[in-house]
Design brief:
This is MerR family transcriptional regulator. This protein is mostly helical. It has four helices and three strands. It has a three-stranded antiparallel beta sheet. The radius of gyration is 19 Å and the shape is elongated. It starts with 7 loop residues before the first strand and ends with a helix.
Length: 102
């Protein structure tokens, strides 16, 4: 069960950032954010905020369209997965090298 008191109201979030509510809807349509609907109001989860704020900068400051933001988000996800794989591989290698020395 989700704790609704921690949710961020999209209306308030958009007012604060001076952006259109439709921007969040578009992010949702592209599968980039999850919108939670409670009592006919729309909310974001707090852990999504850094991602949404990054996308606001890409769109409003760098003038990147939704298609571009979608591509960038997917590439960043792939980079994160590769980084995790690299870390895992490096740890295994260290373990292997450590055993070779003994």
């Amino acid at each position: 069960m989700m704790n609704s008191k921690n949710l961020i109201q999209i209306k308030q979030f958009c007012l604060y950032h001076e952006i259109e509510n439709t921007f969040i809807t578009e992010l949702h349509n592209y599968g980039l954010v999850e919108i939670i609907i409670l009592e006919e109001d729309e909310f974001l989860q707090p852990e999504q905020l850094p991602t949404v704020e990054k996308m606001i900068r890409l769109h409003y400051d760098l003038k990147i369209n939704m298609e571009g933001i979608d591509v960038i988000a997917n590439l960043l996800d792939k980079i994160e997965v590769l980084q995790q794989n690299l870390t895992t591989t490096q740890n295994k290698l260290r373990l292997y090298e450590h055993h070779q020395i003994e």
